[in-house]
Give the backbone structure.
Amino acid sequence: MTQVSGQPRSTEEDGVPTGRQASTDHVGSDHVRVLRLRHVVSPEDHGSDHHLLLLPPGDHDLPATLDVLEAVSIQLAVLHRVARTTTGNERLRLPHQPARPVGTALARYWASAAAHARAAAALPGVEAGSIVRTTAEESLAAATIAAFELAPVDAGLTEAPLAVRRAVAFMEEHAGAPITITDVAAAAHMSVRGLQSAFRRALGSTPLEYLRSYRLRSAHADLVAADPSRGDSVAAIATRWGLMHAGRFSQRYRERFGESPMTTLHR
């Protein structure tokens, strides 16, 4: 991963522009900051010159130069409230390092929500705390949670049956191994058919769909954190997570994250 840094040309507080200059190397403990950047990209990125980078609370070492078009600060309290409303769980899975969106479609969705929040803040007579501002800010918070996958992986598991939670724990612990649906059902102490029905009722998916999604998310996280100069490779990371078919992995990865695994690795 290429490390980057810079000064934003404008900042935002609570999802609205302030126009002040601010350092991007420190983010307060009560909010996250999303930077909208401009730089040259490869054809695999579909020619877009706008990129997003989420900075979690804390100090960040960003040694290269960023062309920052905009910085948006979003209160953690708003993110927690929206997470609780949408998933039933207010916990957030904040990254430890600056993070990119999980796909180009979600990045565009976030940009649209930010533009809406900006427009709402600019309306004459609309004050902070008004229903217009609050709705726009919560929409931006929801877009941030979705675009950067801030909701916990187990957000939908709080009320799930014990057997489903056992199955999920088994799959996550053994995600890199060639496990089968029979293995998962045995770990959950259920029949295959019973487990599939329980999964659909609790999570709206099958056990193997959950496993595939977990493997893709895990591979994506490792690719984001990887460094090709240290010998990290797409093949090694895919193998680590049980994604043995290179072509199928690349196709599903691109469908999920909007770019190839190689593009993510070399960012």
